[in-house]
Design goal:
It is a single chain. Helix content is 43%, strand content 21%. The chain has 159 residues and is α/β, with parallel strands linked by helices. It has one domain: Maf protein, CATH 3.90.950.20. The chain has a 5-stranded mixed sheet with strand order 2-1-3-4-5. The longest helix has 23 residues, at 135-157. The two termini are 19 Å apart.
Length: 159
């Protein structure tokens, strides 16, 4: 994470996050790094559909694809980037080892991660299956996935 924060500082780029199942774990890991205040614009934890919608995610997208989908992760990433006017937006949604009585459809134990690059209007997507681990370990795995993907994006898009 330190390499990512330092690279974003070097490139004068900013990032914002909209997290659901990770409950702010990603932004917490980012803000553990000295200097992160230069790059983090905004973070929202939108555990419920209601607050995803209040932050701009379309109810129609949630209803059509499920709140647990890459389509919703895309909207989360773009809407948080737009809201905060950040170069990168991150959307994370999924189910971690727990059925959701309010959202009965969508893949169990699958987490969707989307990183939106505003400057090239492109999404970088990943999904991870999380099963039979503690929630904390699942969150750590998701942050590892983000770290690998974000580092690749910064290296490829900013040479």
């Amino acid at each position: 994470m330190e390499k990512i924060v330092n690279k974003l500082i070097e490139l004068n780029k900013t990032i914002s996050t909209m997290e659901s199942c990770t409950g702010g774990f990603l932004v917490s890991e980012i803000t553990n790094i000295s200097g992160s205040s230069e790059i983090i614009r905004y973070s929202a934890v939108t555990y419920s559909n209601e607050y995803k919608i209040k932050m701009g995610v379309s109810a129609e997208t949630i209803n059509k694809y499920s709140v647990y989908s890459m389509e919703v992760a895309h909207e989360m990433a773009k809407k948080i980037s737009d809201f905060a006017n950040s170069d990168y937006g991150v959307g994370i949604t999924g189910k971690i080892n727990n059925p959701d009585k309010n959202n009965l459809y969508g893949e169990d134990n699958v987490v969707f991660l989307s990183i939106y690059d505003k400057n090239i209007n492109k999404y970088f997507d990943n999904k991870i299956t999380v099963k039979n681990k503690s929630r904390k370990m699942c969150k750590k795995d998701i942050v590892k996935m983000f770290t690998k993907e974000m580092y690749k994006i910064l290296e490829i898009n900013n040479k």
